Amino acid sequence: MKKKSVILQLAVAATLLFSTAAYAADITSTQDIPVGSSGQMEMVGTIEPSILSVTMPSFVPFNISNSLSTQNKVISPRINVKNNSNVPVQVDVTYASVDISKLKNTQWSDTGAVNANQIAIGLKEEETENTMPTDLAHARWLKANVKQDMNVMILDANQEGAMYVVGTLGQNVSESATFNVTPTFVVSRTSITEN
């Protein structure tokens, strides 16, 4: 009885061994599948893990005043941005929550061009290291309370960059009230690199 059991176990093991080998051979072989019939194909994908990490401040106070003699009427600290990723990334603004309710009789400008009762705020990438921009050329203007797709900067892998808050206001806009602008930044992988 014991001898039959051992032979049966060897037969089962041999069957499993041959069926596994046949299955493995079937995966790597090719076959034609006639129209109207079905077949199976194994697909193998590779995931390339990338962790996107960008460091930037979460709070930036700034002052805006018509008394500044430059085209840019904002004084803002330097906003340091660092790409901690091993791939290039782009930093975009997708939305800007704007509350100017304390600025009586004031309207928002999405373009940077203002009339006497308007204010406009944007972001500008640093052109000269540690120097606040005096003009508004190449500024990216924030749109108030609407979805937008505005690229602010592109950073190569492990690159550091900087930007400033810029803006202008009309002559009738009060300079004694506060207002809040809260942009939503989105970081995504990009194939574009900075020159």
Q: In terms of topology, how is this protein built?
A:
Layout: H1 2-28, E1 54-55, E2 63-64, E3 74-75, E4 79-83, E5 89-99, E6 107-108, E7 118-125, E8 140-141, E9 147-155, E10 160-169, E11 180-189
Parallel strand pairs: 6-7
Antiparallel strand pairs: 1-4, 2-3, 4-10, 5-9, 5-11, 7-8, 7-10
Strand percentage? 25-35%
Order of helices and strands: HEEEEEEEEEEE
Number of strands: 11
Q: Identify the overall geometry.
A: elongated
Sum this structure up briefly.
With 195 residues, the protein is of the alpha+beta class. It contains one helix and eleven strands.
Describe the 3D structure.
The protein is an alpha+beta fold and 195 residues long. The chain is 14% helix and 32% strand. It contains one helix and eleven strands, in the order αβββββββββββ. The chain has one helix at 2-28, and strands spanning 54-55, 63-64, 74-75, 79-83, 89-99, 107-108, 118-125, 140-141, 147-155, 160-169, 180-189. The chain is elongated. The termini are far apart.
